[in-house]
Amino acid sequence: MGVRVLFEDHGVENYNVGLTSALGALGCEVTRFRLRPAYFRVLRTSPDLIGAAAAARDYDVVHLNIHMDATVVLSLAGFPLVVTQHGPSDLERARGGERVYAYARATSLKVASALGNQLATISRYAADSISSAVGVRPAVVYHGIGPEWFRRVAPSATARTALRIPQGKRVALWVGRGTEYKDPMTLLRAIRRVHSVNQNVFFVVKLWHSMPMDAEIESFVVRNGLASSVLIIHDMQPELIPYLYAAADMLVHTSREEGFGFAVLEAMASALPVVVSDRGGPSEFVGAGGIQFRAGDDSELADIVLSLSEDEVRRNELGRVAAEVAHTMTWDRAARAYMALYRNRIDSR
Fold it and tell me: Judging by beta carbons within 10 Å of its beta carbon (0-12, 13-18, 19+), is residue 313 exposed, middle or buried?
């Protein structure tokens, strides 16, 4: 028999839908709710918190993202919590004003644990980082992926036409935000190296939302004469995202601080070989379906991209294995892991 779960939505919708649907399939009664953003990213208004506490009365456990105010209020009100932090603690690398918020998040995790709640995170990399900053090691539950990602939406040529990607080239795809921890500069330096050797390799850079490094990325492409080898795509309709994977021959992922990496798992499910840095969550699950390079080493990354671009047999084999690995990363598996955490937390009251 399932449990009654009051589930706070995270910013990533496929996590919200995938996990809650899988919990429902296990017999859980799940209700999703959303807390409004905190003022100064730290505190919410009392009506928000009172409303959450009132709603929690009808449930066995509350699944929160990490918020000190909500964690304290709900814990002191006697509700058992499972608290997920969706990435590493960035306390060590945070600078300036960001350090204040990083310290608040670390303190929130410490408070949540001290109040007897179960902490969870999404990779061993994130768990190591949190343990170092907080002194408590959370449980690790990897994200999953839905079956829809295993269906090819269109032939490569059709997808390229729809997205205005050149035909007849080897396409390397990068998906991420224009932020420092995604390390787009290593990608750009690798593109410059590849372009100088083989201009038949084409790069598609998919940027999410408006981020601090977007202008720097676009400027680098222009200043280095790479416009003929790079297509930068900004926000697009979610239903078109699978076309990116259908159009590509490989995915490149340069992030140095990735907690999990949904884009990597989506590409693997789409039978793409993936090239990832040796730091962060993706390096834990790509297995034999991917190739790792030293984080920040644009020379090694360029060599791998060039090699894969010229070896169709290897690309196909890596893609086949990548899809097999992705098939094991289900939301059902994640839901069963969270169910065990829920029951342990309820039993420990």
Answer: exposed
Domains of the chain: 4-144+330-347 (3.40.50.2000), 148-328 (3.40.50.2000)
The pTM of the full predicted model, rounded to 2 decimals, is: 0.92
Query: b/e map of 155-177 (b: 16 or more CB within 10 Å)?
Result: ebeebbeebebeeebbbbbbbbb
Q: Which residues, 6 or more positions from 21, have their beta carbon under 8 angstroms from its beta carbon?
A: 331
Determine the distance from the C-alpha atom of residue 321 to the mean position of all C-alpha atoms in its chain, rounded to a whole number.
21
Burial class of residue 97 in the structure, from the number of CB atoms within 10 Å of its CB (0-12 exposed, 13-18 middle, 19+ buried): exposed
3-state secondary structure 46-99: HHHHHHHHHHHCCCCEEEEECCHHHHHHHHHCCCCEEEEECCCCCCCCCCCHHH
Burial zone of 35 (CB within 10 Å; 0-12 exposed, 13-18 middle, 19+ buried): middle
Question: Cβ contacts of residue 192 below 8 Å, gap of 6+?
Answer: 224, 226
Q: Tell me how far apart the alpha carbons of residues 54 and 324 are, in angstroms, rounded to a whole number.
A: 44
**d(C-alpha 105, C-alpha 214), whole Å:** 27
At 184, list the tokens: 């787009």
The contacts of residue 242 (CB under 8 Å, 6+ apart) are 149, 153, 270
Torsion-angle region of residue 156: left (phi > 0), alpha (psi -120 to 50) or beta?
Answer: alpha
> How confident is the model at residue 92, as a pLDDT?
60
Residues of the chain with pLDDT under 70: 1, 37-47, 90-101
Among residues 18, 5, 4, 6, which one has the least CA distance to residue 260?
18
